[in-house]
Amino acid sequence: MSSALAVASVSYVLVDLLNNGLIDRDIGSTGVGDVSVTALPPDRIDPATQKQSQLNLFLYQATPNASWRNVGYPARDAAGARIDNPPLALDLHYLLMAYGLEQLHGEILLGYAMQLFHETPILTRDAIRKSLSAPTQVSGAGGLPAAMLNLFTSELAEQVELIKIIPQILNTEEISKLWTAFQTNYRPTAAYSASVVLIESKASTKTALPVQYRTVHTLPFQSPFIEKVLSQKTAADPIVDGQPILPAYNIVLRGSQLKGELTSVLVGGIEVIPADADLTSTQIVVALPPGLEAGTQPVQVLQQTLLGSPLVPHRGVESNTSSFVLRPVIKMVNASSVHGAGPALRSGNLDVMVDPPVGPDQRVILLLNQLPPLTSPPDSPLAYSFVLPPRINLASPPPNPPPPTANITVPFTGVVAGTYLARLLVDDAESPLGIGINGTYSTPQVTIP
């Protein structure tokens, strides 16, 4: 790679190429006479004071090279330490201008110069070394250190990629804008680019130790997908489509490519490892983990990969996230502290034991449906609903909320005495009803005396 002197070195080599080419082709025999080749800004060339014809190569723009701009990145690690010196890759854009002392001299010079660049599309390493052979002093260096005064120290000839001279096309509008910016009179012009110049810092870098050995682990690509979630009462019971999912049940995941090298199931944020006998590529059976609250729960299949020595699980692929509704079960319901007698409406409390326990932020609704004998007309059994608000203030929850509870007390009022079917809605998950021998709902029941 080159140093920061590479930009000036390219300009010097191109000027030297033009100068030597004009001498070799005996430009004086064309009647042009002596010719000077320079690399000056156009505003510093005064045609009124010219004593000889002149070719001028002006670097008007330097742009990042698109092919090299991301080579070597990232240059720093997460701590900000330098780990690499990525090259600064530049394309240099030149205007070749011809100033003739007499008429047609400018056209003659421009023709010879364009022929030279056409016949020398690449700057070879030998040509660069010959042009930059010491000492090639840079005049007007100002405050530059003495070690940078010689362009031969730029190492331009040693950079990885050779420099190519590429003709560019500028339309009339672009040329007009350039010469207007120069604030000088227009002269015959041709545009070229020199690509690519690679400038690299020699700053110290933090280099990692070499890798002692490599472990290559290959796996076929697969994407697990959950198509449906079913339930199973126990391992000995059949898997029934449409069966509700209740506490202590097994959930059954069916889909494709479910079995991986190391497979687990994430149920409501709790990771469960299925038994080998319950794991296939199309089905996984796992028991519901304890601690799940009633309501809608997400489920996902995770497949990890064992890597390293010793083998350590690493994150692999994940399935889509499916969901199921865990329905609460009423274990017991009794009426207590009942007030009222005769035909008067009753009020009191309903004490309910529920599984799974209700979380402090869950919303609970108790539903009552009257059973025969009815105190109202037979075609209009009574029904009630009572809302139990969350046990904590959801707007400003306490730092230490109370634990889930399996025993809840729901106040009721304005209820006709009788026997009722009881249901719970916990976050919109409804407890199931039992069916009696006659095919009608029969449990759980509560009697309000």
Question: Which descriptors would you attach to this protein?
Answer:
12% helix, mainly beta, single chain, 24 strands
Explain the overall architecture.
By secondary structure, the protein is mainly beta. It is 12% helix and 38% strand. The chain has helices at residues 6-24, 105-119, 125-131, 172-182, and strands spanning 35-38, 53-64, 88-99, 122-123, 163-168, 189-199, 225-232, 250-256, 262-267, 270-272, 283-287, 295-307, 312-318, 322-326, 329-339, 346-358, 364-370, 383-388, 405-415, 418-426, 429-430, 434-435, 441-443, 445-448. Strands 1-2-3-6-5-4 form a six-stranded mixed sheet. Strands 9, 10, 12, 13 and 14 form a five-stranded antiparallel sheet that branches. Strands 17, 18, 20, 21 and 24 form a five-stranded antiparallel sheet that branches. Strand 15 (329-339) and strand 16 (346-358) form a beta hairpin. Helix 1 (6-24) packs across helix 2. It is elongated. It starts with 5 loop residues before the first helix and ends with a strand. Mean pLDDT is 89; it is low at 140-145.
Low-confidence stretches: 140-145
Rg calculated over all Cα atoms: 44 Å
Strand order of the largest sheet: 1-2-3-6-5-4
Could you tell me the strand content as a percent range?
Answer: 35-45%
The average pLDDT score comes to 89
Broad structural category? mainly beta
Would you count the extended β strands for me? 24
Residues in helix, %: 10-25%
* Main sheet overview: 6 strands, mixed
Order of helices and strands: HEEEHEHEHEEEEEEEEEEEEEEEEEEE
Q: How many DSSP H or I helices?
A: 4
The end-to-end span amounts to 96 Å
Question: Given the C-alpha coordinates, what overall shape results?
Answer: elongated
